Amino acid sequence: MTTNKLWKRGLLAFLFVLLLSVPLVLHNKSQPVNASDETTQDESLADKLNQILSNSALDGTTTGVSIRNADSGELLYSYYGDHRLHPASNMKILTSIAALETLGKDYQFTTEVLTDGTIKGEVLQGNLYLKGKGDPTLLKTDLDQFAADLKAKGISKIKGNLIGDDTWYDDVRLSQDLNWSDEPFYTGAQVSALTLSPNEDYDAGTIIVEVYPGKEVGDKPIVKLTPHTDYVHIVNNASTDSTDHSRSISIEREHGSNNIVIDGVIPLEGSNARSWVSIWEPTGYAVDVFKKSLEEKGITLIGNSKATVGTTPTDATLLTSKKSMRLEELLIPFMKLSNNGHGETLAKEMGKVRHDDGSWAKGLDVMEEVITQFGVNNETILLRDGSGMSHKNMIPANELSQLLFEVQDEEWYPAFENSLPVAGNAERLVGGTLRYRMSDGPAANNVMAKTGSLTGVSSLSGYVTSKDGQKLIFSVVVNNFLSSSTAIRNIEDAIAIELANYEF
């Protein structure tokens, strides 16, 4: 036998021994691994997950899967786990963790009402300032309370301007990669330090537009705004039709203005149509609604007074204020309902608190610094926003699972875990975006995970307890799919269910 052949045989023997010594973890394998004659439990899990991932709905996609032991952090399974992928709303995992670490679970936003004038009798002689410091949970009822507080001080007239101050953050309203098509809707609402939410979902910077049938066929539909404001202009092109006509109503704000255009038809006895519409420049929206709150309490602007925006003098006198719910509570609508505006607000707030710069750039710097401290490799990630709306965010599934492992020992971790949607739990603010998924079987009320969804992107990352009581961490991120999003979600669910049903 030649020396060359002997060398080759020796190399093959060495590689075979080396292969037997490597743990059965799939690292960047695109095809299932065949089990040996002596199949172990680990091999069995790999085989089962590989079978799920052989689904034709994943053909042509880039899919990353990472499974870890939650106690040790051991990587149990990796399928393209080191490939950088767009996480969609799994980005909110990074944002919430960074916010808890930077701001603390008891952190609260503040809104203030101040003046540069004096109260003489029932007249406030001077400007009244509504100063926002980022609170995305401010409601009309809070503005009503401000008005009541001023009334209690004896104020009935304001001889000065009503000024909204949003200078706590910069004046960049939209994150850098937000699609034009998302901007008119609540998913792409503008971010301002002074803003308003229409209800307790806390979609800041939006207004609820409801369209009801007119009184007779041919009438214009009736439009209701929550909260009521003159800051928007309704362009009602729709009509009321006969009862046998199907409803086809569209509600959309024109880009660059607050013209909200309503088109289509609504049956005379049909149900109403409703939409959360984003506001162009929400600072002015908050000021307009506050002006109405003042008027409802009998407080009027007199003389040449007007409602506008500006900056509060440093020596202004505080008249009243409000603190928001604690961050631990805010994480519930943020994570359970996947509120994009909260993600962007938290990013700016972290920049303001850490660097006195309420901008996306500084906020994202803080986020990267924090998650790097928790073991994420910052050389393989790209952070572009706080919500996950950007198609340029990138992070591997293995890094997501590593982050979910590292944070478990933090004092604030229970608040983070509690914010994750719970599979199959019908309670809206418990199950959140998972309340209709995995509603029976071993994953129900077991899987706690953040969902993510963009065009061609779906993700699910979180925690699950196996059949024999082992806590596991998983991350599934699918990019570039053309099949239905339901088919992809079914694959994510199948992986989570398999983990819930597995015995080690």
**What structural class do you assign from the helix and strand content?**
alpha/beta
Q: Please, what is the oligomeric state?
A: single chain
Can you summarize the main beta sheet? Answer: 5 strands, antiparallel
**Overall 3D shape:** globular
Residues in β-strands, percent: 15-25%
Distance between the termini: 47 Å
How many alpha or pi helices?
12
| Strand runs, count | 23
Order of adjacent strands in the largest pleated sheet: 2-1-23-22-21
| Weakly predicted, low-confidence segments | 1-42
pLDDT averaged over residues: 92
Approximate helicity band: 25-40%
Q: What's the short version?
A:
The protein is built from twelve helices and 23 strands.
Task: Report on the architecture of this protein.
- The radius of gyration is 27 Å and the shape is globular.
- It has 504 residues and is of the alpha/beta class.
- A hairpin with a 5-residue loop joins β14 (248-253) and β15.
- The chain has helices spanning 3-21, 41-53, 91-102, 140-152, 282-296, 327-336, 340-355, 360-373, 397-406, 413-419, 428-431, 485-500, and strands at residues 62-69, 75-79, 84-85, 110-115, 118-120, 123-125, 128-132, 157-159, 162-165, 206-212, 222-226, 233-236, 239-241, 248-253, 259-267, 273-278, 300-301, 307-309, 317-323, 395-396, 448-454, 457-465, 471-479.
- The chain contains 12 helices and 23 strands.
- The strands form 6 sheets. A 5-stranded antiparallel beta sheet has the order 2-1-23-22-21, with helices on both faces. The chain has a 5-stranded mixed beta sheet with strand order 18-9-7-4-19, with helices on one face. Strands 5-6-8-17 form a 4-stranded mixed beta sheet, covered by helices on one side.
- Helix content is 30%, strand content 23%.
